[in-house]
Amino acid sequence: MPTFVNPFKKADVSDFEGVYVPLANSQRHHSVVATHEDRKNSLNKDHFDEKKLESPPDPGSNSYSANTIEGLRAEIELDLAASGHDTAYDRKSKVINKAITDIGMGTYQWQLFVLCGFGWLADNMWLQGVALTLPGLTSEFGPSETNVRYTTCALFIGLCLGASFWGVASDVIGRRLAFNATLFLAGIFGLAVGGGNSWVGTCALFACVGVGVGGNVSFDSRQAEAVATVHGIAYKNGKTTWLSVDVLNEIGGLAVVEDKQKLSKKEIVSRNLNKFSTERIAPLFATRKLGLMTILIWFCWTTIGMGYPLFNAFLPQYLANSNTEQPTAASIVYRNYAITSVVGVPGSILAAYTVNVKYIGRKGTIAISTLITGILVFCFTISADPDFQLGFTCLEALFQNIMYGVLYAYTPEVFPAPNRGTGTGIASCLNRIAGLCAPIVAVNAGQANPKAPIYASGGLFLAAFVAMCFFPIETRDKQSL
Hints:
Elements: H1 30-44, H2 69-83, H3 88-103, H4 107-141, H5 150-173, H6 175-193, H7 199-216, H8 223-237, H9 245-252, H10 265-274, H11 278-281, H12 288-312, H13 315-321, H14 330-344, H15 346-354, H16 361-379, H17 386-414, H18 420-448, H19 452-468
């Protein structure tokens, strides 16, 4: 492997020598063969409505071999019968999915896991960072304990701008350069926040941090490039792959000749904006089930987008001012906040297990965790005792992380791939807008009743739970296109 890799060079299959092996000589993953046999048996038992299939596959054929084009085509036919979609895109997506499955989990996936994890870490860390600075900003610059919450509003303005701008910019300047630029901006302005000489100036710096952070979570093709990418994954993992353009064309048909002329920046921006046109949104409501799923998932992203910051973005303030007689000592506040954050970490790990448990799955995990989160938020207001509040904030953080972990993983799975970017993009946009409104609600409601923002947060979580009870799609053990 070369010691230096140009991060801006487009990959080509010729860059990965020794990776390609013919399908006949390849080592197929055992799960692929097992899944094919299971689906063939299911088809024999009339689990699929053959009246809806123009040319249903022959499940009784004994000629199936995982290492032939005919065998691969048989796998794809059964997958398409299960999904109900059959286009050239669907066929080629299935082929690529199987090629990646045959490569298996390896170095590439783990490095991608860590990289994306740091993106989400930065997103969450800065929201917590602003929350921790609110008491200090009040002491240093003088804004009231309610008005200082507008600092969080400044961060969310930056997050909204960043998510909108970098999604388009990544198509103009490339994803790697855009991703690195977002990290650079977040780091530079994050350091500058510490030197802010006024409250307004500090808010402006937090907004700039948001522009960077809001972009790095939004990044997380042509046919030849898709094949080269799979070859690159195999090369990184020290494995081989049978995928080639010829195999894709054999299964999915010849690719349409593409215009080689490079699009102008104006055309790129126009095409990105078109992603949110009615033509792109309409397929999300193509069926009654998908339409209901789309509305409910967007509703959940909106309610949680406001409910989460209403409680968590101002938690240090709630912990410090819960005692009406005298403020809780700063050392106890930050100690309890640190303990709460640590206890919440296992939530994501627990979610990774429960989403694959039979009869629970994604829907059960997210609904139960959201319900418990809402109840615990209300319980926080029962007593002003720091130890009592610590117990409930720890439990709330645990179940809240379960909820958010499933929400982020489940949302892309329920949308069809050609419109997945639109569906998740709108969900993220609604989440950011709701988060932007949360400080405004907290400031105005908090002036009338200090506990009002907490009650509103709990109510929003419970509203999301009700919506989750009506989710019509369970994605456990199902492969997304």
